[in-house]
TrEMBL record:
Gene3D superfamilies: ABC transporter type 1, transmembrane domain, P-loop containing nucleotide triphosphate hydrolases
Domain ABC transmembrane type-1, chain residue ranges per copy: 16-298
Pfam families: ABC_membrane, ABC_tran
Subcellular location, principal: membrane
Topological relation to the membrane, as annotated: Multi-pass membrane protein
Domain ABC transporter: 331-566
Name of the protein this chain belongs to: ABC transporter ATP-binding protein/permease
């Protein structure tokens, strides 16, 4: 949490003014019982109406000035805590954008969203309460005891005893409820996760007719949450009656012992009333302190979650080079192995190959063979754990991200579009892309026809995630997006899986016409999609088992033969 204090930068003055004004308000509050005592002892005793009126005006003035101080404190506390919250959110958003796939594997997007929103809000509220109340409550308690001691040192003992009893009850109850609160938070997180999953997977749930099962699981989570909330509610409900009882016992003791002092002539009636007022002020201040402690505990827990994200340093460092050596003119893998950060197994092992510029490469293999892992190393979505990945003779790590990603364009397995227009989605790689360039890319990606059919053309709306397009249309739009800005290397990671054979073939034919310089890597589980490649890599268990063109592999590669047998028909493969 301490590491988050730097985000208060720019709000230092506000953070000092807020507690100062709150303490000023508290000082006025501490004077009130003394004035009440004077009204009773002098005004009422002497039946002096003008004195009473005069003192009442002072009370009103104290109230008004106190209110102004309180509002000033609220204003400055809100300004600095909101400012701090905004600074943290900005810093987190910026920091998360520097994460590579490795960091995103470690902190899941749903947790990141919770941390950037809910947790930062909790920190913000905690800071606001802290600035306003943390100094005020102890100030009132100490001040009230001090003022009481100036009235009667003998009766101050009752105050100390009441404070010890109230303090102990509060401590015990908070200790238990904070533990329960942690449980409540855990179950609340689970419910949020469940709600999010069942909403985003609503169609799958309907398709598998799992509505009842989902409802039951939700009900179970809800009941658990309910149980812990009731438990913590019951225990916190004890707090008020317990502390009020202790205070009331204190007040009764003050009345009895104070009464005796009045008889002895050591105290006036007004002073006894003032002592009772101070006792009530202490109780109120301690109750506020309890709420403050609970909120601060929550804020500290949230602050820890926020600080964890900010402390996570991206393992990849950006290079400085903007040009290649031009030697090898293509992509080379030298003894490359890779393991995911959250896994002990190697996803690819000792991969070695070179691809000259302008070739079309097919990568085929069963699920989990390591195809996606391999191609993700080229645009540095991950860094190899062993070996080197070279692009035009330079390690990919040496290039700036801008340069590397301008040269290598990847269409991932999952087609992701963003809400906006088709044009806006097409301009992701090149903001200045003209309509002509966009139509050209759409034509190659076999998407021109259905975009033209739209009344608005390139201004056609894309709904979040591209849900107003079919799976195949989404894939084609993503391929078009990847072609804009003329990359040197185009990687299609199973990105044509939703296309029918004819469209898939038309796409590959169009890609071949793009230019001799374009290196195309097509990852697929379909033989038909990669069989025209200049070279085909056959992958299995994280290794490239066989390399060759379609005809060679049909003769030499058992895995390839098997794939052909199952897909193209037995006769063709043998
Ligand atoms: N983010 C990840 N974290 C941990 N392990 C992963 C991750 N992604 C993939 N793996 C594992 O790495 C191995 C290779 O996966 P990869 O996605 O490269 O296979 P693939 O050949 O592309 O499969 P598919 O054709 O099904 O997409 C698999 O065993 C998989 O479980």
């Amino acid at each position: 949490m301490r590491s988050l204090l730097k985000y208060l930068k720019g709000y230092k003055v506000e953070s000092v003014i807020a507690p100062l004004f709150k303490m000023l308000e508290a000082s006025f509050e501490l004077i009130v019982p003394l004035i009440t005592a004077r009204i009773i002892d002098i005004g009422i005793a002497d039946r002096d109406k003008s004195f009473i009126l005069h003192q009442c005006i002072i009370l009103v003035l104290l109230g008004v000035v106190g209110l102004i101080c309180s509002l000033t404190a609220q204003y400055f506390a809100a300004k600095s805590s909101m400012g701090m919250g905004a600074n943290i959110r900005k810093a987190m958003y910026h920091h998360v954008n520097t994460f590579s796939y490795e960091e995103l594997d470690l902190i899941k997007p749903s947790t990141l969203i919770n941390r950037i929103t809910g947790d930062v809000n909790q920190v913000q509220n905690g800071v606001n309460l802290f600035l306003r109340l943390f100094m005020r409550a102890p100030f009132i308690v100490i001040g009230a005891i001090f003022m009481a001691s100036t009235i009667s040192l003998r009766l101050t003992g009752i105050f100390l005893l009441a404070m010890i009893l109230i303090g102990t009850s509060i401590f015990l109850i908070v200790k238990i409820t904070v533990k329960l609160y942690t449980k409540v938070q855990e179950h609340f997180d689970a419910i949020v996760l469940h709600t999010r999953e069942s909403y985003s997977g609503a169609r799958v749930i309907r398709a598998f007719h799992k509505e009842r099962k989902e409802q039951e699981a939700f009900k179970e989570e809800g009941e658990l949450l309910n149980r812990f909330q009731i438990q913590s509610g019951r225990i916190s409900a004890l707090l008020n009656p317990l502390t009020t009882s202790i205070t009331n016992i204190g007040i009764i003791s003050l009345l009895i012992l104070g009464g005796k002092e009045v008889y002895r002539g050591a105290l006036s009636q007004g002073e006894v009333v003032a002592l009772i007022n101070y006792m009530s002020q202490i109780l109120l201040a301690l109750l506020i302190l309890v709420n403050l402690v609970v909120s601060i505990t929550k804020a500290l827990a949230s602050g820890k979650r926020v600080a964890e994200v900010l402390a996570l340093q991206p393992r990849m460092q950006e290079g400085k080079e903007t040009t290649g050596l031009g030697k090898a003119e293509g992509i080379s893998f030298k003894g490359v192995s890779f393991s995911y950060p959250n896994s002990d197994e190697t996803a690819i092992e000792n991969v070695e190959f070179s691809i000259p510029r302008g070739e079309t490469i097919g990568i085929i293999g069963g699920t989990g063979a390591g195809k996606t892992t391999l191609i993700n190393l080229i645009p540095r979505l991950y860094d190899a754990t062993k070996g080197e990945v070279l692009l035009d003779g330079r390690k990919v790590q040496e290039y700036t991200y801008k340069r590397l990603r301008a040269r290598v364009s990847i269409v991932p397995q999952r087609s992701v579009l963003f809400s906006g227009t088709i044009r806006e989605n097409m301009q992701w790689r090149k903001e200045s892309a003209s309509d002509e360039e966009i139509w050209e890319a759409l034509e190659i990606a076999q998407a021109k026809e259905f975009v033209m059919e739209k009344q608005e053309g390139l201004d056609g709306i894309v709904q979040g995630g591209g849900r107003n397009f079919s799976g195949g249309q989404r894939q084609r739009l993503c391929i078009a997006r990847a072609l804009i800005g003329k990359p040197d290397i185009l990687i299609l990671d199973d990105s044509a899986s939703a296309l029918d054979y004819a469209t898939d073939a038309a796409l590959r034919k169009a890609l071949r016409r793009v230019g001799k310089e374009l290196t195309t890597i097509i990852v697929s589980q379909r033989v038909a999609s990669i069989k025209h490649g200049d070279v085909i890599f056959v992958m299995d268990e994280g290794r490239i088992q066989d390399i060759g063109n379609h005809e060679e592999l049909r003769r030499t590669s058992e895995i390839y033969q098997e794939l052909c047998r199952t897909q193209l028909g037995k006769g063709e493969a043998l």
